[in-house]
Design a protein that fits this description.
Length: about 400
């Protein structure tokens, strides 16, 4: 083959194919670049960017960033300047609720904002938390004359060297485990003889000390009995009846406290049904019936309907009876059926047949009367004619309601 033939041979690098490969290797464009498009083979390598097109452009340095002015009275202005915003003055601080009418006025003055009631402090462990009854009795209600700020005194003033450790007494009374009782003492939830103790290791006399946990009185005397009797209609509120009528003792025959001498707190007439407290705690019985402690009693009253408006207000304002003026503490319509109305009333008076006499005075004789609650103790779903023992938490609420 002649020298010219070798030069034009396809195997020779000087041919058409070799020039395309050389252009691709050198970073140039292939045949497809003739039309101005970059095809698969026309790019600078497989997926690589081609920087050779900007070789002729001069390098242009970035414009230096102008320093932001700093205002010492408004430190945020520099950041606003950097974001291209004008410097804004800082907003004055405003207290929450300052735009409400009455803001700034002294409490108690006309138009002043009423302060919000502080929620009750929540604790991790509840006293008598494992008991079935007494979980929803609400806050402790104490007589007004016994209320006052709690005091903290040193352990030495309450310590009885011959007594029992306080946390052990609490645990034996069913408050909680001994470890939890220690936490309650450290949290300031325990009162001994009316004062708060926050120190562990204190000893008390269980037969003489008065202990409260979260305001709930702990009854340390195991001989005391507290029961609730749901009295049916036709039963006399006595332990024995000379006329042979059904009485309370007839329902105690199968009770383990049958031989115990019990008092019935208050009375319910023969036709009235509902809650009757039984106990051998004479001091509690006296205080529950004494008018100075104002223990509320809740009744459900059924009368003939319709019940006109204004009668409830009249009962709340007071009606004249033969032994003086009597009034209910609260009045609420519960239910209404054709010809009958069910009403809930709360009052603290313990006069004989007081509810029946009040409704007779306003012209609506009582058809059926049921007492459903005395102080913090309610009937709930207890069936008629049954007797149950109060839980320790219920006993504590009941004792605290009369200042014991």
């Amino acid at each position: 083959m002649t020298q010219a033939g070798r030069q034009s041979s396809p195997r020779n690098g000087s041919g058409r194919n070799s020039s395309g490969r050389n252009e691709a290797k050198g970073g140039g464009t292939g045949r497809s670049n003739a039309g101005g498009f970059s095809g698969r083979g026309g790019s600078a390598g497989a997926g690589k960017r081609n920087f050779s097109q900007g070789e002729g452009r001069p390098f242009k340095a970035p414009k230096p960033r102008e320093a932001a002015p700093f205002d010492p009275d408004n430190p945020t202005s520099a950041g606003d300047y950097d974001r291209g915003q004008a410097a804004r003055p800082a907003k004055p601080f405003r207290k929450p609720g300052s735009n409400k009418p009455g803001f700034g006025k002294a409490p108690g003055t006309p138009g002043a904002i009423k302060p919000k009631a502080k929620p009750a402090r929540q604790y991790g462990s509840k006293a008598f938390g494992s008991e079935r009854f007494g979980q929803n009795l609400g806050p402790i209600r104490k007589p007004a004359r016994n209320r006052g700020p709690r005091q903290e005194v040193p352990q030495s003033d309450l310590h009885d060297a011959d007594g029992v450790r306080l946390q052990k007494v609490m645990a034996q009374a069913g408050v909680a485990s001994r470890r939890v009782c220690e936490e309650m003492i450290l949290e300031g939830r325990v009162e001994v003889d009316g004062v708060v103790t926050t120190e562990l290791g204190m000893r008390v006399d269980p037969t003489a000390a008065v202990i409260h946990v979260d305001g709930i009185r702990i009854q340390l005397d195991d001989t005391m009995v507290y029961m609730v009797f749901n009295k049916p209609k036709g039963v006399v509120s006595t332990m024995e009846d000379p006329e042979g009528r059904p009485c309370i003792s007839d329902f105690l025959k199968n009770n383990k406290n049958k031989g115990e001498r019990l008092f019935h707190v208050g009375r319910l007439d023969v036709a009235t049904e509902g809650l009757l407290l039984l106990t051998n705690d004479g001091e509690l019985a006296n205080r529950l019936t004494h008018p100075s402690y104002e223990v509320p009693k809740t009744y459900l009253v059924q009368v003939r309907g319709p019940f006109p408006q204004g009668v409830g207000a009249k009962l709340k304002n007071g009606v004249e009876l033969e032994d003086g003026v009597a009034a209910v503490d609260s009045f609420r319509l519960v239910d209404s059926t054709p010809g009958h109305v069910l009403i809930e009333v709360v009052l603290h008076s313990g006069k004989n047949r007081i509810v029946r006499r009040m409704f007779d005075a306003v012209g609506f004789p009582v058809e059926r009367l049921v007492r459903v609650k005395v102080g913090p103790i309610g009937l709930g779903d207890q069936r008629q004619g049954s007797i149950r023992n109060l839980g320790r938490q219920e006993v504590g609420h009941l004792l605290a309601s009369v200042g014991l």
